[in-house]
Amino acid sequence: MWNSASSKRPLAALDPSLPEVDLYTSSKERKAYDNMGDLYTIITATEHLERAYAGGAVPHAEYSAECNKLLSQFKIVERAALGKNMTTEDFMKVYQMDCPRAAHRLLIDGRPEMLKQERPDSHNVAVTVAETVQHFITAMDAVKLDQRAVDELQPLLSDLMNALVQLPDTPNDFGPNHRVQKWLQKLNAMRAVDTIDEDDGRQLYHDLDSAYSEFTRYLRAKT
């Protein structure tokens, strides 16, 4: 007969007659749990990093390096842990992960928080411009060569966006930034195993080409 005393007694932990329940029955299942554990760790680490940086506990250089590392690891681990069966948003809901800053950084922004130099010297500006040009060319060449996988395109656009935001004196409504950021957010919302279709590929190339043209016009106007 059920009573309050028996209801408080642990069931399996103290009853040696009950069989043990294994989390996995094969090496494949064990690897799947390991991959999900890695994903959980990356999301949690990103949340802690964002909170520490916002509180001034981490210098920007150190924050940026660690954030880039986590962003790179995230797409690789996400693909291994979730495949095509679950999104990261679903994963966070299932495991009740309250990590809003990590969700924004990993799934929306896709790049570290950037700081512009208040008084950049001419050498640094020239280097930034050269890097931005190179990132534009690399990204456009990749699209032209029919690269369509998210884990191929997202790092290229992230590098381009990082370079664009370092340009001094650009207006808040600078077109190239908005065009690249729009695509970066779209790719961040997708999984690493996803691909964009042919129409999106053509539109991405068009937007990058338009952004590059506006970028070069900006440079000519500054000289």
What's the SSE blueprint?
Layout: H1 4-7, H2 27-54, H3 60-82, H4 88-94, H5 100-109, H6 122-144, H7 150-164, H8 175-188, H9 198-222
Helix pairs in contact: 2-3, 2-5, 5-8, 6-7, 6-9, 7-8, 8-9
What can you see in these coordinates?
The protein is mostly helical and 223 residues long. It has nine helices and no strands. The protein has helices at 4-7, 27-54, 60-82, 88-94, 100-109, 122-144, 150-164, 175-188, 198-222. The radius of gyration is 23 Å and the shape is elongated. Mean pLDDT is 86; it is low at 1-12.
* First and last CA, distance: 89 Å
Mean pLDDT: 86
Percent in helix: 55-70%
Molecular shape: elongated
Proportion of strand residues = under 5%
- Gyration radius from CA atoms, angstroms: 23 Å
